[in-house]
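Dear colleagues,

For the upcoming journal club I promised to circulate an example of a predicted protein-ligand complex. I picked one with glutamine because it came up in last month's discussion. The inputs are reproduced below in full, followed by the predicted structure.
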Amino acid sequence: MAGDPPPGRSAGPAVGVLALQGDVAEHVAALTRCGATARPVRRAEELELVDALVIPGGESTTMSRLAEDFGLLEPVRSRIKTGMPAYGSCAGLIMLADEVLDGRPDQQSFGGIAMSARRNAFGRQVDSFEAPVDLEGIGPLHAVFIRAPWVERVGAGVRVLGRVSAGPAAGRIVAVRQGNLLATAFHPELTGDSRVHRLFVDLVREAVGTAAGS
Ligand code: GLN
């Protein structure tokens, strides 16, 4: 681990949080705790200034519509295609899926992860619940799900990092990684547990060559 940056300066990578809708502030706080320079991204010009992007939880149909309205759909797609690291939680996972099941017919995703994400997969009665997840590279964590999707299938090149480990949904895929893209169906930004954000910030550091200690 690198020491703290000098006061007033940050050595961390610039990580944007897509701020069209959803729980933006919680992600900014979690990223900041992990040493990143986190800032909201609403416009294409702001996207150009960040090394990586977090896509928050919220509502993927609304996020899709606003991404089109704000002219961000194609810019985000093209940054993802050219290797920008991205992390999506919940609705963000849906936005990173190449295929969305149970979406609105006009719903768009950024794509990038070869997976099919099913919206509201855990059922309408179970609006929100908590369940243990054993996450590769992290270990057991307590996961909060809110009208969450699950990953129904993954294609070649996608690593399954975590499944629900107990309860009625045991075995369901809820965390994946493909290259520099990370997605979880749950909301680590709401629990005060920074380990998933730290994993992502480490991934970003590696991707942009600003590894700790350099
Ligand atoms: N159900 C929401 C969607 O389809 C996701 C919910 C969430 O992000 N908490 O986008």
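Two points we might discuss: The chain has a mean pLDDT of 92. The chain is about 25% helix and 30% strand.

See you all on Thursday,
B. R.
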